[in-house]
Amino acid sequence: MLRGEIDSWVEQSPYVHKDGRSIWVEWTSSALRDETGHVVSLLTFVRDVTHQVDTHARLLHHAERDALTGVLSRRAIMERLDSALSRRGHDELLAMYFLDLDGFKQINDRLGHVRGDRLLTQVAHAVQDVVRRDDAVGRLGGDEFIVLSDVADLPSAQALASKLVDAIAVAGYDLLSGLRVTASVGVAVTPIHARGSYELLQRADDAMYLAKNLGKNRWALCRADRGGLPTPPAD
């Protein structure tokens, strides 16, 4: 700016206030020039923009989060999937878990939507507790969820599927009514079963329906010839 390339400059940066609070400040500097065009001084304004920065962060958070459960929204989880696939090496495995709750309709029908919403939130939190911090959990809508997880091999993918089934069976119990929801989980791994995001979602969905048709409360692994491999029900 002192050489005259630009006449003004705006930057936001974190700052520690003298009272110990962390705030955001915006620095706006403008060059004052003489009649020959040379910079003779700088005029700088500083203002506290903590409220604006916090508001923007909250809006971004709400835009990518499911309003009920707090996990990623449908759009956000699919964007996360596209991003993960675009930067993945040819030998790196990404597992998708398609979770569909068993018996959830009876919760809504018999106990009402408020209790149903509470149970959905419990299930979402249970899933988040099972997965690793870098894994992604999203809600497609209704009682369907997606989990994305980097895995070392198929046994690792299967181990997480089993943990998800077990965790949901516990979290899905309504103590007052004695009703329980479980989960049918379909597992597909890229690049073994699919390469694109839509195909991976479809293969995981196919495997989920196999798990449901085989008795529910279990997971099924997608096969290369489409469909899935059955697994025993959770205890």
From TrEMBL:
Keyword Hydrolase included in the entry's annotation: yes
GO molecular function: cyclic-guanylate-specific phosphodiesterase activity
Domain GGDEF: 92-224
PAC domain residues: 9-61
Enzyme Commission designation: 3.1.4.52
Any coiled-coil regions, as ranges: none
Sorted UniProt keywords: Hydrolase
SUPFAM superfamilies per UniProt: Nucleotide cyclase, PYP-like sensor domain (PAS domain)
EC class of the enzyme, as a word: hydrolase
This protein's record includes keyword ATP-binding: no
SMART domains cross-referenced by the UniProt entry: GGDEF (SM00267), PAC (SM00086)
Protein's name according to its UniProt entry: Cyclic di-GMP phosphodiesterase Gmr
Species for this entry: mine drainage metagenome
The encoding gene: gmr_200
